[in-house]
Amino acid sequence: MRSNKSDTARNLAKAHFANEPNLKHIHLLEPVNEDDPRDPIKLLEVVEGTLERGIEPIAFPANPGRGIDYPVLIIEVSPKEYEDIRNNVLTLKSHGWSMGSELSAG
Amino acid sequence: MPAKSDDWARAYAKQALSDLDARETLALAGADKCHRLHFLQMATEKVCKAHLTSRNGHENVRKTHGYIEKNLPIIARLFYSRVNSANQMAMWEIKHIEKIAREIELLAPACDDGGTRQDNTEYPWEGPRRDVQVPCAYSFPNIDDESRLIVRLIRLIRTASESYSA
Question: Which of A10, B43, B160, B162 could form a disulfide with B16 if both were Cys (CB 3.0 to 4.6 A apart)?
Answer without folding.
Answer: B43
